[in-house]
Amino acid sequence: MADTDPRPVLAPILGDQLTRTLASLRGRTKDDTVILMMEVWDEATYVRHHKQKIVLIFSAMRHFAAELRDAGWTVDYVRLTDADNSGSFTGEVARAMERHDCSAIHVVEAGEWRVQQQIEEWAGRFDCAVEILEDDRFLCSIGNFREWAEDRDTLRMENFYREMRRKTGLLMDGGKPVGDAWNFDHDNRESPRDDMDPPERPKFEPDEITRDCIELVEDKFGDHFGSLENFRWPVTRDQAEKAADAFFAVRLTKFGPYQDAMVHGQDDLYHSMLSTSLNLGLLDPLELCERAAKAYADGEAPINSVEGFIRQIIGWREYVRGFYWYHMPHLERANALNAQRGLPEFYWTGETDMRCMADCVRSTRDNAHAHHIQRLMVLGNFALLAGVNPREVQDWYLVVYADAYEWVELPNVAAMILYADGGKLASKPYAASGNYINKMSDYCRKCTYSVSKKTGEGACPFNALYWHFMDRHRERLENNNRVARVYQNWDRMGEERQAEYLESAEAFLDTLTPADRGWARSE
Ligand SMILES: Cc1cc2nc3c(=O)[nH]c(=O)nc-3n(C[C@H](O)[C@H](O)[C@H](O)COP(=O)(O)OP(=O)(O)OC[C@H]3O[C@@H](n4cnc5c(N)ncnc54)[C@H](O)[C@@H]3O)c2cc1C
Ligand code: SF4
User: Is the pLDDT of residue 1 over 50?
Assistant: First the structure.
């Protein structure tokens, strides 16, 4: 009866729903709606987020609330430090219902399973209609992904991606892919060059709102991981668009070829650095992809870069979100390889002689960001090879990256890097020795360890750990035809050499100090 009821509708907007065209606002007027935005303690602390991540979300929320108010909407904004703040979404909706006497609650489904469980309880708890709307900022709904997944044995991203290309018409020429190929990965694996000089991304100086958030975070979360010195993330749609403009103008052309490259001290390379804005809702994924496709059509960027970028967004980003909802809540507990080691302390301190790991942790601490290959093939690869417990790795990734929300972090960590789902996402584990890191980076040149030395003192730890991993998971992996050749090589080595690898790996693993568990979620 909301249509005839003179009372307003309450529209709670969560921290990653900062989009003016959000489903719960469309079709509503400024007179019949009270928007509720909430900074709550539960969300700020369910893991001990990187300081930049908390500043980013609170600042973006405060800016968004100010924009809505300027546009004439009624926004009830609850600050973290408000005296009666109950600390939870449900508690704040209950208080808001008392303040506003609303006829109904309209809310867009949550990004994370944990929060969605809370929202689904509202109908039983509040004496009004509760409408949970689909988050149509994603191009593939949770229901559509389920339909796609249900009649398949394997859920490969490539098949999903091709359907998304057909559905959106992006880079399509009738029924055929533009350039006569669905992907150009073979052109996108260039090693870094010494003379590479990627342009700096735009940095957005903190304004008064952001400075207030920085002060708040220093005060309340001062012992959380990460530095705030380098805080320069876009916090409004305007700034996010400027960041996107800069990417399209100067970095897109080389995005493809150097997508997998890593250079010591060069943190952004040719990446877009747009994930924080996309995940907050400041940028629209389809608009970005259409812009990239136009850059190709106008001859401003090559197909391998444009296709690579579009694949990340309508392919990987949409796919992992569908995968998350399809496999939750089990995915959170998956541990197919029975990995039990504690997360090494150097994931927090960066204190290790492994130059690749130290640089990736440094970038993570300074920027709340590391790019995809650093997350996958250095930090992730090490956790996989060393057999670190998935829950600890998940918590780490959720804490340390400014773009981390469980719907995107968990599939990447549990399924992509740790193979904890037993191979539903990846056809084989992304395990690699030091050779891969050496080929794709300049890290090894000045490392204390020698990448060409396979075992013994001074040898790159990734080399022996790789074989240790393969050996301990032989039973599970040797029948996988994508890995079978690895075991033929292993067998050809002979027992003595194999023992050297295994002893080297074990000696290294014995040196690892596990981090304190104080920062992680309680079991
Ligand atoms: C272990 C691991 C954990 C990750 N955790 C997160 C996370 O918490 N949040 C997050 O947004 N991304 C995550 N990613 C994906 C990816 O690393 C980041 O999206 C990317 O580094 C963000 O930087 P960028 O915007 O410069 O990306 P670009 O390299 O410029 O890519 C463009 C966009 O594509 C999307 N994208 C690319 N790869 C992926 C992917 N594998 N999954 C989902 N989206 C993708 C992102 O939206 C990104 O902004 C993770 C990857 C790995 C391997
Ligand atoms: S030698 Fe090994 S540990 Fe050192 S940077 Fe290279 S891959 Fe990393």
Answer: no
